[in-house]
From TrEMBL:
Classification of source organism: Eukaryota, Metazoa, Chordata, Craniata, Vertebrata
UniProt record similarity statement: Belongs to the uricase family.
Pathway(s) this gene product operates in, as recorded in its UniProt entry: Purine metabolism; urate degradation; (S)-allantoin from urate: step 1/3
Record-given protein name: Uricase
Keywords: Oxidoreductase, Peroxisome, Purine metabolism
Underlying gene: Uox
Oxidoreductase recorded as keyword: yes
GO molecular function: urate oxidase activity
Signal peptide: none
Main location: other
Residues the record lists as binding O2: T48, N242
Length: 279
């Protein structure tokens, strides 16, 4: 049981400059007994309102140096404070506020919410077990307008999809990776490195790009790039929910069909998923 959707904004000042971190937290516990379920005995139950207040107090006392460290602080608090807690899991996701800039100069207290992917993390621990940390990015929408195709696929009497060697590749990406047993990592630095690997593998070099023969190959390229460049990542899961675009027939409107006007196919949509780890 636990408390979902604990929302808070943590702000602090360094001189005249303001800093903010807005997060949404979910914290779940498993207790050493089930008296509350079997007997209606609530003597071991930590109220979910108490759980919410603990999250607020930890944000106040410790700040949020990184999402992962905040999740670790929450797990550690419940494990060290309550002997009846057998397992704790904490999920934290960040609202993507970015500082405003004017002519390259950062504003001291103004921010803009930029939807370029949502950072999240999870920390979980069983009593007498290791504290395990996961991190990720979700709702990251990516597109490349060419150098993507889909050919040579299996066909039978139900196949109507034509082969294509020049299409738009667009999708919403979910990526989650494991650090294994928690150590003293620079979580912010690692998260930024993984995000850079995702963008590089998806797009290819800026002057020429890279050909994608399938969504599946793109997913694998992302995973291989991360595992080769970020040694702290042990296992990585990537899900790419595809958005398809169809070319509008412009001939009836007296125009040529040059693939310049397309419409998204809202549903149904495809999805590719793969989990890859080190040996």
């Amino acid at each position: 049981y636990g408390k979902n959707t604990i929302k808070l904004l943590r702000r602090h000042k360094e001189g005249k400059k303001e800093f903010v971190k807005e997060v949404e937290v979910c914290t779940h516990l498993r207790l050493t007994s089930a008296y509350e379920y079997l007997d209606g005995n609530n003597s071991f139950v930590i109220p979910t309102d108490t759980m919410k207040n603990i999250v607020m107090v930890l944000a106040k006392k410790n700040g949020i140096p990184s999402l992962e460290q905040f999740a670790i602080d929450i797990c550690t608090h419940f494990m060290t404070t309550f002997s009846q807690v057998a397992y704790v899991k904490t999920y934290v996701q960040e609202v993507p506020w970015q500082r405003l800039h004017k002519n390259g100069v950062p504003h001291i207290h103004a921010f803009m919410c930029v939807p370029d992917g949502i950072r999240f993390c999870e920390a979980e621990q069983c009593r007498n077990g290791p504290l395990v940390v996961f991190a990720g990015i979700k709702d990251l929408k990516l597109m490349k307008t060419t150098l993507s195709g889909f050919e040579g696929f299996y066909k039978n009497e139900h196949t109507t999809l034509p082969e294509r060697n020049d299409r738009i590749l667009c999708g919403e990406l979910f990526c989650k990776w494991s650090y294994g047993e928690c150590r003293d990592f620079d979580f912010d630095c690692i998260w930024n490195k993984v995000r850079e690997c995702i963008l590089d593998a998806f797009s290819g070099p800026p002057d020429c790009g890279v050909y994608s023969p399938s969504y599946q190959k793109t997913v694998n390229s992302i995973q291989m790039c991360v595992l080769s460049k970020v040694s702290e990542v042990q296992v990585i899961e990537v899900i790419l929910n595809n958005t398809f675009y169809t070319v509008v027939d412009m001939k009836a409107l007296g125009c040529t069909n040059d693939k310049e006007v397309l419409v998204p196919v809202e549903a149904p949509y495809g999805s590719c998923a793969c989990t890859l780890g080190r040996k």
